[in-house]
Amino acid sequence: MPAPSRHDRLSADGPVLDGIPEHGRVPRYYAVKVELLAVIAELGEGAALPTERELCERFEVSRATVRQAVGELVLEGKLSRRQGSGTYVAGPKLVQPLALVSYTEGLRRQGIRPGRNVITLERRVAGRALAADLQVTSDAEVFHLERVLLADEERVGLESTYLLVDRFPRLLEVFDPEQSLYACLSERLGVVFDGAEERVETVLATPREALLIGTNPALPMLLMHRISWGPDGVPFERVRSLYRGDRLSFTTRLGRND
Question: Which InterPro entries would you find in this protein's record (predicted)?
């Protein structure tokens, strides 16, 4: 009786099982993808992946098959491509809590240095959609702060925050745009965040967003919309945060409502 092939062995258990279609045949690229996961684990973070030619010879498959397997691992954030250099094993994704904590606090808890590059800081009229979210008239003025989010100097997201001018008239006097906005609001302006509503969806970045974040426009992004309010229940902030899906994940803790 012949020994089981590599693909037979893999399809018996583990990740390949999840990729088996109804007809029972494991797609060749998917079997290679699982083999690559083992290679990635052996190489370790930051190591260069073998060349396409080497992988084709190792797995006895075509370049197209290798490219499809590698491409999916790039989309999933397990590999990263560097233009003119090659493909490398990516580090673990950053984890942000879905809670009333700032981006800064979330990263510092993981021992990661947060940073921001200011793109826009302006005073503008709210307009109809924003006014509806903040429960004000459309001609009310808001501060608009747009910043590229950094994690240990790596660009990982783009955040746009809108705050009511009437609620925070001294904001520009006390706020350093490269520091934590939430820390400024709570420590300098006495703001209490009592609650927020957040919605998460997957999108593709616009050409401008992809350029600012430094990512491929074809990579999936995580888009978060948040409206925050204080103890009086009146909303005072709207935030639109766009994160790289290959570099960030989110976590929350759920409990049973009795």
Answer: Bact_HTH_transcr_reg, Chorismate_lyase_/UTRA_dom_sf, Tscrpt_reg_HTH_GntR, UTRA, WH-like_DNA-bd_sf, WH_DNA-bd_sf
In this prediction the pTM is: 0.72
Which of the listed CATH numbers 3.50.50.100, 1.10.10.10, 3.40.50.1000, 3.90.226.10 matches domain 6-89?
Answer: 1.10.10.10
Q: Using one digit for the tens of pLDDT, what is the confidence trace for 130-143?
A: 999 999 999 999 99
The string of pLDDT tens digits covering residues 176-189 is 888 888 889 988 99
On whether the 94-251 domain is CATH 3.40.1410.10, my answer is yes
**Residue 226 CA: distances (Å) to CA of 17, 137, 162, 177:** 38, 19, 10, 19
